[in-house]
């Protein structure tokens, strides 16, 4: 695994007005040295982390040498959302998770980039929670990003998202086996009935009354429990309901008009969490006030998780953005 680096941030003032005297920000870099190539910031999803490529990299199919996001041409930076536990330092976990918002995370990521002497980035990309953070990063510093690529996400938490965050929070705070039980519910949000039914077809294990779908869900719960901390799950889940780039700012059209980045919205046609209709509405609003905005849709039976499954479709969407031939004129700052 690529070495985990740390930036020490002090006296971090949260959106709520509360202050954190110290926030460690962990990150990994891949590809070219900082300052020698265009910067791509990759934001992880709810149970993800900064290890985007290489050994156990969760986006190996898209990021790496000769891949769509080619580390021979780009510097890739991925931060860990503070409190996600990927550093394995349990002292850095966050118990007061409701103090934090996505805006706080986006601001902390920008502080990390500025610490690394990075003021402008070629692209910020992320799926689900990571895409929501990307939207907020663009709203915070609208002149610093060339390409904003939010995937299977939205710039706001809809009532549907807020409702499911509440259910997850209730499970996480009241279950005897909170991580595993919450994961059971979450997996059914991330997939579709068609995907589940097609895969398992009501099959059982031989000489057993256990359905394979039951075993599949149970294994997902066990796996997450073995690698994820309860406080991290509570925080990541809570952040989803705080997603709203218009909060205390004005309407969406006014805000998106200030964002200089080319915005490439990527939805999934069967996403039951961040539904494509909301992304289409976002596109219509954005294109009314901004020219450099596009809408793309992954076609899949698998629902929300298609952004982690349908790599070929996603690569085809991203290729025109990350084609290295377009980066030949890059000059180091």
Distance N to C terminus: 29 Å
> What's the CATH H-level superfamily name of the largest domain?
Alpha/Beta hydrolase fold, catalytic domain
List segments where confidence is low: pLDDT < 50 over at least 5 consecutive residues.
329-333
Beta-strand content? 15-25%
CATH architecture term of the largest domain: 3-Layer(aba) Sandwich
The helix count comes to 10
Biggest sheet details: 8 strands, mixed
Mean of all residue-level pLDDT scores: 94
- Largest sheet, spatial ordering of strands: 1-2-6-3-7-8-9-10
| Count of strand segments | 10
Please, could you describe this protein's structure?
This protein has two domains: 5-157 and 242-327, Alpha/Beta hydrolase fold, catalytic domain (Rossmann fold); 160-238, Rna Polymerase Sigma Factor, Chain: A. By secondary structure, it is an alpha/beta fold. The protein contains ten helices and ten strands. The relative contact order is 0.14. The model is unreliable at 329-333 (pLDDT under 50). The protein has an eight-stranded mixed sheet, with helices on both faces.
């Amino acid at each position: 695994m690529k070495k985990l680096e740390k930036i020490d941030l002090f006296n971090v003032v949260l959106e709520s007005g509360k202050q954190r005297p110290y926030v460690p920000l962990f990150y990994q870099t891949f590809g070219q040295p900082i300052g020698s190539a265009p910067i791509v910031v990759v934001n992880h999803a709810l149970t993800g982390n900064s290890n985007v490529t290489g050994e156990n990299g969760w986006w190996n199919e898209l990021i790496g040498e000769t891949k769509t996001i080619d580390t021979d041409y780009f510097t890739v930076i991925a931060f860990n959302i503070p409190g996600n536990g990927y550093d394995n330092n349990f002292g850095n976990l966050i118990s007061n998770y409701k103090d934090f918002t996505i805006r706080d995370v986006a601001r902390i990521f920008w502080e990390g980039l500025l610490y690394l002497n990075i003021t402008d980035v070629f692209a910020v990309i992320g799926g689900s929670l990571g895409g929501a953070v990307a939207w907020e990063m663009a709203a915070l510093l609208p002149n610093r990003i060339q390409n904003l690529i939010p995937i299977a996400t939205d710039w706001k938490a809809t009532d549907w998202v807020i409702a499911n965050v509440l259910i997850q929070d209730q499970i996480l705070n009241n279950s005897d086996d909170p991580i595993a039980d919450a994961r059971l519910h979450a997996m059914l949000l991330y997939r579709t009935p068609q995907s589940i039914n097609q895969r398992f077809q009501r099959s059982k294990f031989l000489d057993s009354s256990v359905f394979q779908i039951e075993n599949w869900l149970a294994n997902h719960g066990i796996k997450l429990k073995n690698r994820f901390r309860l406080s991290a799950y509570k925080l990541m889940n809570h952040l989803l309901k705080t997603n709203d780039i218009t909060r205390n700012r004005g309407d969406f059209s006014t805000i998106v008009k200030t964002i200089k980045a080319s915005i490439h919205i990527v939805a999934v046609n069967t996403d039951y969490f961040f539904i494509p209709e909301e992304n289409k509405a976002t596109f219509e609003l954005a294109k009314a006030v901004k020219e450099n905005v596009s809408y793309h849709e992954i076609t899949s039976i698998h629902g929300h998780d298609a952004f982690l499954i349908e790599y070929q479709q996603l690569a085809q969407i991203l290729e025109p953005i990350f084609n290295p031939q377009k980066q030949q004129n890059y000059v180091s700052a």
